[in-house]
Amino acid sequence: MDLIIIGVVGVLFSCGTYLLLHSNLLRIIIGLSLFSHGTNLALLLSGGLKRGGPPLLSTPAPYTDPLPQALVLTAIVISFGMTAFAVVLAYRTKQVYGSNEIEELAGGEE
Amino acid sequence: MEAPTPVSAYLHAATMVKAGIYLVARLTPLFSADPVWSPLVTGIGLVTLLWGGVLACKQTDLKGLLANSTVSQLGLIMALLGVHTKLALTAAILHIVNHGAFKGALFLTAGAVDHATGTRDLRKLGGLYAMIPLTAIAATLAALSMAGIPPLGGFVSKELFYEAMLEYGALPIIISVAGSCFTLLYSAIFFYGIFFGKAPESGSEEPVDAHGHAAHQSGHAAHETEFGLLLPIMVLSGIVVLFGLMPGIPGALISPAVRTFLQGHEPHLHLALWHGLSPALGLSAITVAIGAAAFFMRPMFLPRLRTIQAVYSCNRAYTDGIAGFNRMVLGLRKLYMTGSITDYIRYILLVLLIATGIPLGQFFGVTAFEPDTSSAMPDEIGLAILMAMGEIACCFLQSRILLLLALGLIGALVSVFFILFSAPDLALTQIIVEAITLVLFLLVFRFFTRVDPARSARTKTPFNIGLSVATGALVALLLLAANIGQLYPSGVTPFFFDNSYVLAGGKNVVNVILVDFRGYNTTGEITVFSVAALAVFALAKLGPRPAAPALGGTVPASSPILQAMARLTLHLMLLFSVYLLLRGHNEPGGGFIAGMLTSLAIILQMVAFDLESFKKEIPWSPLRIVFSGLTLSAITGTGALVFGQPFMTSAFGHFHLPLLGDIELASAMFFDIGVYLVVVGTTLAIIRTIAEE
């Protein structure tokens, strides 16, 4: 199972990188989202997959590690905030500069 | 060199320039064991001796000549320090003293000559012996000492120098002799040029005189140096003679320094004027012969030397070198600073791949990896394949809407994974966040320009694809290397299980960690989150506006079915979110999830109806909600301080509420409500800000 998830994380990072190399801002933002997903899965992986039930003390042991879950939970929320910010940034860029292709936005030397 | 002459004498002959020598001398015991040290220091010293001598010969200004001769003499001392035998160290220190004496006298002479004649230009001076005989004698003695003529102080140290160099090697001794020949030459140029020879005729004014005033010929009558100026020269010259005739005196002066150097060994202090017919004496004779010959032949080469060096000076080489370096750096910069962010990302990735990849490769050679391969179920494999397909589709889809749907698919699959891996809180959060993200993208969807197929083709190069695949592979290999599946149970985890209920009164350990054990952390996190709301608000509301009226036109009314559904579900969703919030401490749920769900419910209303009804539903400004949430969390945290507990300590008790069952009312609950408010406020602020645009 570990190997499968590691593979999924690898594909997530590959595709995220590829999108990041695009010139279109929408794709770059999606690339960043894929990075977040990949990181979250990798974090969760460190908690020992499927070694136990959810870490609820009302259910019988064994449990999985709650610590990565707590980390990932905040990471999800934060990455939502980041995505929202990036989306608004792209939107404003389009509004002010008329484009969201970063090649066209590349500044001069100054 | 611009200082008044007595200051020059003090600085250049004795103290300041010797500071570097002192440093090298001090460090000699430390470094002399290093095989590089001796050749390096001696080499630099000898080159300096020779080159300084050449430069001194070409000077026309008296002080310029003396300054360059100082450079040369310091090179000599440096070379001796590099040799660092007993003999050489003795010679070095002796020469420091000797050099101080004769160079002091010579600098003062230069001042006296300037004072007497009004010029320091060698081309205008000559025959001054008749006018200032006492100065002339004293200065000549000092200059002869510098040249290493017996029986003066300089001769003694020069003999020792030759002896030390004879022990050192053949090339060094040749350079030493050559350098000493130049020493002799410029010493002779100095005293002969000033005091003997013939004075230039009154008519032959050089036009090159920078100062313009016609020197000693016009009115500034030359006169014997005043006593006050003469005395120091006489004293120093006397010392020069004394040191030559009685080498025991400087020997006694320097013996403490030499003893320090030799660290207790008895210094070599058999200083004498006459060493017998030694090889060093022979070298001295050769030096005098060549130097004298050069002196008499100087009209043949000196003028040419003066012009040649103006072209090939070290200063010029330095300036050219700096300029060339600047050009090279600029050229290099143009080569890689393309102004394209994409290129910079490529650089970062390449560095990441190389800097991480190489140690990783070495690591895999050493450590065995033991992944858990046992429990891969068909459904999980299917999920993984589906997900990979979604990801790859993301890369190559042209349509924006399909792209967003693929992203949504990936998010949904991630939350399925979360369910599979016993993380219900994460699954809940993920699926709601995914929905909100999709709404967010759809709101600004029309502002994203269509993906240009030509541009996509340009991205689809083998290099980019290779780079991406390599990055993904690197991450996967890193996870393998970290043996990431085998880390659990981590050291701190048992603590959470043992104390979650006992200390914090909660059974949902994830939630307890968030709102209690790591409450501090969460406070920081919701603060960051609310800053995102502020940033979105500022970004959208401030700054330049486009001149054209933004996106007028009517938004088509949404379908009545959606409106009916939205109205129907609003209260259910809100109720469910309250339920999630209240039970979060013991069951999956909590502030984050409840906040996201509440936001989703309100956003659904907004999509189904319009912004105005949305504003009617939520009369408060979203930012105000954010800050009340932050304040509530902070007050809850600090509340513990009132009871003398550390920040964020929680208290709890149990209550029974009808329908909801046993409710755990911990103070952490209020903290969670704060989180809830922050999440709701931030999400609404973001969405509403964009919707209003």
Give a structural overview:
The complex is a heterodimer of chains A (110) and B (693). With 110 residues, chain A is mostly helical. Chain A contains 4 helices and no strands. Chain A has helices at 2-20, 25-45, 66-97, 102-105. In chain A, helix 1 runs antiparallel to helix 2 and helix 2 runs antiparallel to helix 3. The radius of gyration of chain A is 19 Å and the shape is elongated. Chain B has 693 residues and is mainly alpha-helical. Chain B has a two-stranded antiparallel ribbon. In chain B, strand 1 (652-657) and strand 2 (661-666) form a beta hairpin. In chain B, helix 5 packs across helix 10 (248-262), helix 17 packs parallel to helix 24 (591-608) and helix 20 (493-504) packs across helix 21 (509-517). The longest helix of chain B has 32 residues, at 86-117. The model of chain B is unreliable at 202-220 and 547-554 (pLDDT under 50). The chains are: A mainly alpha (110), B mainly alpha (693). The interface between A and B is large, with 86 and 117 residues.
